[in-house]
Design goal:
- The chain is mainly β and 526 residues long.
- Helix content is 7%, strand content 42%.
- It is globular and about 90 Å long.
- The C terminus is likely disordered.
Length: 526
């Protein structure tokens, strides 16, 4: 075998090229070279929330495959899809636009594990009696776009087929992989068997007007649920939104008009938007089922997760949530918390028993926004409930809270909070519909609320309240003067099983063995 006479020079050249490539790879940004990163890939290990593709609800349809549904037949103009068994199979990644009516069939995505699929619904009406109307068997990620001005309806049957059940299908929309819903059109989902939308991985909603009626969960996901800029209405027989991982809401409107629990997840974060929930049990329930947030604002390994990295995609400008309080437990260090930094949260439970407004197995942190809670006063129903018995804390450093409920096991904010608050308890219930007002010494109204439920425990906090300040609390026709002697104060004569951090008793309005009837008769009115 002969050796090339320039072999030495070739080897040196290869080594130099290798060194140059290595230097550029390690210092590319210094040379103005940008690395291309697929934030929508499963292997992406970033800790942000919404990618550019997640938010693009008006992508170019000029090269898309056009699928027209016509009762029990389908017309396909383009490549990557074919008709099968009265429905549509999408076998290749790419762009697809669907319109028309399918009387009993499914849209099935079954592509390569690396494929991304864009489906645009443009006035689609699909009914499927025995399976999901839209199902994702295999893909890297699917983007379900609601076309501008479109009205789309998906209706599931009462009982799914044995094949669907063997595959674990429970939703009218069902995805084994990551799913994003975006766009500006509307989508109505009717689930007569189980869940409205179900995803085994992450579900992201960044747009559209979505209405879900479901006999079980409105939305059910195994990993994380993230939402921004959407208008979502849910009526559910079980949870409004259930996640085995986490729930993150940045903006938009969420109305859960009927449910057992409103939001249930390992960790729940609200950074904006308008959220209104009418539960029969808890409004928010953070229970660390399978939390995906390794640290506040980021994604860490989930308990029981495989070695393969989870997908977490986003280009949002939201930074790590501020001032989060995390408890320390020798038994379990899995993150579990409710964090509210902005937005408006309203929870009203008219008929529950042993029901909580905000319920966390560990921590609750409020740094901003407005939180209004009303739960029944009877039984062990609490407006705020956290894992104080296991070292959890409830702290407030900003925002406004008006929380009314029962006093039997009521919990207020910890006195490590930087914003002042007080909890007032009553031995006998204040009637539903009673007006509650808090004023400062100058007569300026700081808080005002007409409680939908009866009250034996009232927790109030707002940025204008300070330690040492004197305030007038008016309940109905009667006024009580209160001086806050600590950051967190418990007042009144109602029985409480509070088990949290130390709360100071204080204020001229403190009942020390008196009778709540004195309050209502006006003996303490000033």
């Amino acid at each position: 075998m002969t050796t090339h006479k320039y072999i030495d020079r070739i080897c040196v050249a290869i080594m130099l090229i290798t060194v140059v490539i290595t230097v550029l790879f390690m210092n590319g940004k210094n040379f103005g070279i940008e690395t291309v990163v697929d934030e929508d890939a499963k292997s992406y290990e970033g800790n942000t929330y919404f990618t550019a593709k997640d938010q693009n609800g008006s992508w170019d349809t000029s090269e898309a495959t056009v699928i027209t549904l016509d009762g029990d037949s389908v017309t396909i103009d383009g490549v990557g899809a074919y008709e099968y068994n009265g429905g549509v199979y999408i076998a290749n990644g790419g762009y697809y636009v669907l319109s028309g009516t399918l009387t009993d069939g499914s849209i099935v995505v079954d592509t390569y594990t690396s494929s991304k699929v864009w489906l645009m619904l443009d006035n689609v009406n699909i009914t499927c009696e025995k399976d999901a109307c839209i199902r994702v068997n295999e893909a890297d990620k699917v983007f379900l776009t609601l076309a501008a001005g479109s009205e789309n309806t998906l209706t599931g049957g009462v009982e799914y087929s044995s094949e669907a059940l063997a595959d674990g299908t429970g939703g009218v929309i069902f995805a084994h992989d990551d799913l994003t819903i975006n766009g500006s059109g509307s989508l109505t989902v009717g689930a007569q068997y189980k869940h409205g939308i179900e995803a085994n991985d992450d579900l992201v909603i960044t747009g559209g007007t979505i209405t879900i009626d479901a006999v079980e969960d409105g939305i059910s996901v195994n990993e994380s649920f993230r939402m921004m800029n959407a208008d979502v209405t849910i009526n559910a027989g079980d949870d409004g939104i259930h996640s085995d991982g986490d729930i993150y809401i940045e903006s938009g409107t969420l109305l859960i008009g009927k449910c057992y629990e409103g939001l249930e997840a390992g960790c729940i974060e609200v950074h904006g938007g308008d959220i209104t929930i009418y539960p029969t049990d808890d409004g928010f329930n953070a229970n660390a089922i399978n939390s995906q947030f390794g640290d506040p604002g980021g994604y860490g390994p989930r308990r029981g997760a495989s070695e393969e990295p989870d997908s977490a995609e986003s280009e949002s400008d939201i930074s790590a949530p501020p001032d989060i309080q995390t408890s320390e437990s020798d038994e379990d260090d899995t993150p579990c918390y409710i964090l509210i930094t902005g937005g408006n949260v309203t929870i009203i439970n008219l008929n529950g028993n042993d029901a909580d407004g905000l319920d966390s197995n560990k921590d609750i942190t409020i740094t901003g926004g407005t939180v209004t809670i009303s739960v029944p006063s009877q039984g062990p129903s609490n407006a705020i409930d956290y894992g104080s018995e296991s070292g959890g804390t409830a702290v407030i450093s900003g925002g406004t809270v008006i929380a009314t409920g029962g006093a039997a096991m009521s919990e207020g904010f910890d006195n490590s909070s930087s914003q002042a608050s007080f909890m007032y308890t009553y031995a006998e219930a204040i009637e539903a519909g009673t007006a509650i007002t808090l004023e400062n010494e100058n007569g300026d109204t700081l808080l005002s609320y007409k409680t939908p439920c009866s009250v034996t425990a009232l927790t109030l906090s707002c940025p204008d309240m300070t330690v040492g300040g004197t305030y007038r609390l008016t309940v109905g026709d009667h006024t009580e003067e209160i001086t806050l002697e600590d950051t967190s104060v418990t007042l009144g004569d109602g029985a409480t099983g509070f088990q949290g951090g130390p709360h100071g008793m204080g204020g001229r309005g403190a009942f020390q063995g008196g009778n709540a009837e004195d309050f209502r008769k006006g003996d303490r009115t000033e």
